[in-house]
Amino acid sequence: QVQPVESGGGLVQAGGSLSLSCAASGRAFSIQTMGWYRQAPGKQRERVATITGGGSTNYADSVKGRFTISRDNAKNTIYLQMNSLKPEDTAVYYCNTNLLRFSWGRGTQVTVSS
């Protein structure tokens, strides 16, 4: 089963930016609707953003206008550009298909200090 590899997290001050990447194997990657998810301590995992194979995007209200999801099908990779970060964005960020068809990767930690 496909297990994505997430990267790009780190520690940033509120108002700062980070760019995450997620690489996944599989010939069918380009047709999959992919998503970024996050899980904060003590909370359930939530979906942050999705992108279809054709590039249509959707965002959670909490990140709309601040985060941008994109993809490069030639590289089997999706990205999440995060701007105007807030302390409540602190979480481990994961990627998966919109139907959770992949195994969960290790994720990448994003910590936003106030």
Structure description:
The chain has 114 residues and is mainly beta. It contains no helices and ten strands. The strands form two sheets. A six-stranded mixed β-sheet has the order 2-10-9-4-5-6, with no helix packed on it. Strands 1-3-8-7 form a four-stranded antiparallel β-sheet, with no helix packed on it. Strand 7 and strand 8 form a beta hairpin.
Summarize the structure.
The chain has strands spanning 5-7, 10-13, 18-23, 34-39, 46-51, 57-59, 67-72, 77-82, 91-97, 108-113.
- The share of residues in extended strands comes to over 45%
Compute the separation of the termini in Å: 39 Å
Derived structural class? mainly beta
> Helix tally?
0
Helix content: under 10%
* Rg from alpha-carbon coordinates: 13 Å
- Integer average pLDDT: 95
**Low-confidence region ranges:** none
> Secondary-structure element sequence?
EEEEEEEEEE
Give the spatial strand order of the biggest sheet. Answer: 2-10-9-4-5-6
